[in-house]
Amino acid sequence: MNTFDAHKRTVKEVFTYIYEIPFYQRGYSWKSDQIRQFWDDLMMVKEEGHSEYFMGSIVINEENKDLLQVIDGQQRLTTITIFLSAIRDLLIINNNKESAFNIHQNYIAERNIWGGKDKFRLTLSEINLEFFQEFIQLPIDNDSRKGQDDFSKISNNRRRASNDLIWNAHLEIKTYVENYLIDNDNDLNSILELVELLTKSFLIISISVNSDTDAYIIFETLNDRGMDLSTADLLKNHLFSKVNKTEVSTVQRSWTELTNTLNQDNITTFLRHYWLAKYERVTDKKLYEKIKRYLQKRNVSVRNFVEELNASADIYVNIKNPTLSYWSDNELVKSLQNINTLNYKTAYSLILIGKLKLSNSNLKTIADACEKFVFKFTTICGYSPSEVEKIFGNVTKVLRDNGG
User: Fold this and answer.
1) Residue 28 · residue 128 · CB < 8 Å
2) Is-above-0.70 flag for pTM?
3) Shortest CA distance to 199 belongs to which of 119, 112, 129, 102?
4) Which of 213, 294, 360, 375 has a 20 to 30 A CA-CA distance from 22?
5) Residue 14 backbone phi and psi in degrees, to 5
6) Average pLDDT by consecutive 10-residue portion of the chain (404 residues)?
């Protein structure tokens, strides 16, 4: 790997650049505990009067100097943006538009002096991009800004778990800031002081690399050093480090289709059931290494592999949400519904390979047997889920090797 640079920067200095989250990154993932910690850190620094406070690090790819890619640090930068947007909106509501404009221009969007659209300082990946701009980054007095009513109208099948987390973070931070303002006699200077504190006293170590190759290496190395990266995150990164440059856009579309089919939070679970069905039994911890070795040893086409994942994902979601229009058999649908109601996920891999290998009548027999078998062995015999999975793994192997 080429050399990398590291710089100590204030939040104010960090936000003088324009960033984007690359497509191979997962969506926003911070929950209430992390949001609370962010707020508690801010209150602690204020109360104890620290002139400097180390907030954490970010890793960026500087290959394009005009648009830096965030390899690690998305959650932190996104949360800072949510916080500053909440204060900006509160200032607008309280008729301090000059201060609100300064926050927006310095931290949320770079003003276009030629009259075009402002350029957002942080652009999230496709899964969160539009939502983040419309619900968070646009000022509250912008006609295109969306709010609670718009959020409530989003149907369940269009919901993204990471967008829900963004909205929840917004609501929690908004509540913290509003209560803080009330506690300080509605003095707007009190929340402006919080902006000053965060942007000038909170420090971030910015580590930069200069190529896609180095970015992929850094991303994967972070996982070896204890970062909380899922199998899906790592696999996506590895696939795009291997893909032929002429096929990047095609594979990107296929991966987006996969995330749309499964929803972001279900990809890792699907990958394990897929691997159990198509190849071998594996633990969650070993899954990524198994897939990585398979791709390296077999020299598998990344494009073909992702297309195969898509085909299996379509079956998988219909196992989890069975409909008569897909399965064309009432009894099979009923068995699958019972398996899901009883949360018998150990059966998913067997049914997945069964769909690929068996006739409909034999598949119906397998689904019915799965339902009855798991009920007896977990409820009556007291087998643990891992013991049942081992049995199912053996049956899946026979079916995989010999077909129907």
Assistant:
1) yes
2) no
3) 102
4) 294
5) -60, -40
6) 78 96 83 95 93 90 89 93 98 96 94 67 92 96 94 85 94 97 96 97 91 69 55 80 82 84 77 90 83 81 91 93 92 90 84 88 87 68 63 79 68
